[in-house]
Write a structure and sequence with these properties.
Elements (H helix, E strand, L loop, with lengths): L4 E2 L2 E2 L3 E4 L3 H7 L10 H7 L7 E4 L7 H7 L2 H4 L3 H20 L9 H12 L10 H20 L10 E5 L5 E5 L13 E2 L1 H12 L17 H14 L3 H4 L17 E6 L10 E6 H24 L10 E6 L6 E6 L4 E5 L5 H5 L1 E5 L2 E4 L16 H16 L19 H23 L4 H11 L2 H9 L4 H8 L8 H5 L15 H10 L3 E2 L13
Parallel strand pairs: 7-15, 10-13
Antiparallel strand pairs: 1-2, 3-4, 5-6, 8-9, 10-11, 11-12, 13-14
Length: 530
């Protein structure tokens, strides 16, 4: 968190996180004198890796907030939710601190004033919308509800109101619940815009399409492979970012254009396993990363004995086959263990290794420069840096920092890769049905009755429980367009991969819809000049 300054004195609450067992077990180089036994002391009182520690502006640890961070309520949240909620709580604590109050002394008026400050106060340069406030309110609700249940508060300072639920029951909801919540912050990039974003943002290309002199991309092949995996498969950031090496589909000589893989239940939002498909060329990028920079960082880590010092290392001895594969391992003490692959958490996956020719090798696919697992939320930083590079390279100087609609430079997030995949697959599936199969209206109706229409296919690819979610949110730009009419003018040969003949189709969709970024002359205002 960026501290709020008051003169030269920082007055913000901060959040620290108990490091993963890798750091606690000795990978971190220096330890403050007298604190060598910290891991065992933490274990004795139930502190676990991933627990938050809230530090006040006067450098005191709040013990009750630490207990909340160790509670089942907080630990059951997904990792990203825990990080977001802790940040939201720290902001509220800072607001209360400036009023001379602790969080146990907060009143309903304090919470009302905080909502006004966060959402409507003209003096606040960083006001938030309904969606963000809704998330913050959920964080506060969980904290105060826990405090009341544990006897630390008599009642919550959050005002509530009674509403009728969908089944006719009366339920209590926060009175400050926002009414202007957007269902999803969705935006799309067309395929050629993704190609430009990758080249400029991740490969360091100039406007002219060549690498900038002196460019030295750190783990460039890893970053490109990850983005291409997401854009060709529709995987979420946490799903693609938590893959193990043996979960990657294997390309075959003379194989097809797409390969099928499985996402384990524990890393999906629905907590159900699902199938994903990834394009052959994107899978080739991942394989190239595995054989090059990944192999290099693994070897460097082995040479300094980094893996052997991991207290929680689990050396996998077998991955069984069948409907419910199990992962079997031995830990550093030689104790055997096993767990169903579908049930392995992100943290457990990070500790899985296999015995290689030079020692233990991580099974976690994406690694940092130290050869350690690259955590899923860290990909946000990669995308942020690439967005900044695209803006700097592609935006004319007089518009730099003044391009909110991405007129000159594309802007992408890990989730926009998923949105774009959905849009791409809908157009491609309609294209295949209408042109490649030459279906008449009657034949197409029969095909849909037998196999389902493209909307249903895209719903399955995304793993949505509701078809309406797919239609209303992810594919909103084309929900009301006659795709057959638009595609009827595409006369190019459909057999050429990667179907760049559809670029003009996507360009027309982008022109007729809101929220779709498409590379055109405005994105290259200097006509390719470097």
């Amino acid at each position: 968190m960026k501290p709020i300054k008051k003169g030269a004195l920082a007055v913000s609450w901060r959040v620290f996180w108990v490091p993963p067992d890798a750091a606690r077990g000795g990978v971190r180089g220096s330890v403050v004198e007298g604190w060598d036994d910290l891991p065992s002391r933490e274990d004795a009182v139930g502190v676990m890796a991933g627990d938050p520690i809230f530090l006040s502006p006067d450098h005191q640890v709040d013990p009750l907030l630490s207990l909340y961070g160790q509670s089942g309520t907080f630990r059951r949240y997904e990792e990203e939710t825990r990080r977001n909620y802790a940040t939201d709580i720290a902001l509220l604590l800072t607001f209360l601190w400036q009023r001379g109050r602790g969080w146990l002394e907060a009143t309903s008026r304090d919470l009302e004033d905080y909502e006004h400050w966060r959402r409507r106060a003209e003096g606040n340069p960083s006001r938030v919308g309904g969606s963000k406030w809704g998330r913050e309110l959920a964080a506060f609700t969980g904290l105060f509800r826990w405090a009341v249940r544990e006897g630390h508060l008599v009642r919550s300072p959050l005002a509530v109101r009674q509403v009728v639920g969908r089944n006719g029951e009366v339920i209590s909801v926060p009175a400050a619940a926002p009414k202007d919540v957007r269902p999803s912050n969705v935006h799309w990039l067309t395929p050629r815009t993704w190609r430009r974003w990758i080249d400029v943002g991740l490969r360091g290309h100039t406007r002219g399409g060549v690498p900038r002199p002196g460019w030295a991309g750190r783990l460039e092949d890893r970053n490109v492979a990850f983005v291409r995996l997401l854009t060709s498969s529709g995987l979420r950031r946490g799903e693609g970012g938590s893959l193990l090496t043996f979960e990657l589909p294997v390309r075959r000589i003379g194989g097809g254009r797409y390969y099928r893989g499985k996402v384990a239940a524990a890393v999906t939002r629905s907590k159900r396993p699902r199938t994903f498909y990834v394009a052959a060329d994107a899978l080739g990028d991942v394989e190239a990363y595995v054989d090059s920079s990944r192999a290099w960082v693994v070897r460097k880590a082995q040479q300094v004995g980094r893996y052997e010092r991991l207290a929680q290392l689990r050396l996998v001895t077998e991955v069984t086959r069948g409907l419910k594969p199990k992962v079997r391992w031995r830990d550093q003490r030689g104790v055997a263990g096993e767990r169903e692959l579908n049930l392995l958490s992100v943290r457990e996956r990070m500790m899985l290794f296999t015995e290689g020719p030079h020692g233990p090798e991580p099974l976690w696919l994406w690694l940092n420069e130290q050869g350690m697992p690259f955590r899923p939320h860290s990909w946000d930083g990669v995308f942020r840096t690439a967005n900044q590079r695209c803006a700097k390279v592609l935006t004319p100087p007089k518009y730099l920092g003044m391009d909110p609609h991405q007129v000159f430079a594309p802007y992408a997030t890990p989730h926009s890769a998923r949105h774009s995949f959905a849009l791409y697959m809908l157009v491609v599936l309609n294209y295949l049905m209408d042109r490649r199969f030459g279906l008449s209206p009657a034949e197409r109706r029969d095909f849909r009755l037998l196999y389902g229409d493209p909307w249903f296919m895209v719903q399955n690819l995304l793993g949505h429980a509701s078809r309406q979610t797919t239609v209303d949110i992810y594919l909103a730009p084309v929900a009301d367009l006659q795709l057959r009419a638009m595609l009827a003018t595409a006369d190019d040969d459909p057999d050429q991969a990667p179907m760049q003949e559809l670029d003009e189709v996507f360009a027309r969709i982008a022109r007729e819809s809101e929220g779709i970024q498409d590379l055109d002359d405005r994105l290259d205002p200097f006509g390719g000049a470097t």
